[in-house]
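Input/output pair, single chain:
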Amino acid sequence: MTEKYDTDNNRDEDALQTERYAAVSDGAGEMVVYDTENTDAWLKSDAAVEVAEMA
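Output:
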């Protein structure tokens, strides 16, 4: 099995990791999930679960 990157250096391990999708609570009990690369792509819901809970 190979590692994430097949290199002998660790410069990739120190790189900032970003996620394409993010979620925030609006403070009124609803969750907004959005695409950090496309400002037109988002959804708002009054119910949300962690991915691990769905397995």
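The radius of gyration is 16 Å. Strands lie at 21-25, 31-35, 38-45.
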